[in-house]
Fold:
Amino acid sequence: MFDLRIGSEPALRAASIYVRMQVFVLERGIAIDDEFDANDVPGVTYAVIFDGKTPVATGRFLREDDGSARLTRIATQADYRGQHLGTQIIRALERQAQDLHIHDIAIHAEVTAIPFYAGLGYHAVSPVYKEDGVPCRVMSRTL
Structure:
């Protein structure tokens, strides 16, 4: 049974970093210095899904200003894909935004993930650009 946790505790940050290391750095080959950025600091909110004690999916919530936020570093370990864990992460972070009275959410989506985010109600608002060497588009949604 999966357990979704959201918060800014150091243990959740560590669990999120574990998943991101597995997915982005080891699996996808993104440079470690690009993946772990200046936003991985105490106080940042993370959503993490655990399978027992093992973190298997994650996402990060960055408040941009009073009315907007950005969801970043959404990742699910390979063995757990196809179980809608990414959707659970996104929806948990959206609830976090609503609790903070934030209504505008943006995601810097890899081009290959655009259909996933579109299915969750996000729409592209930028041309394709490169982020950490990966083609992306900004997608947004009003809650």
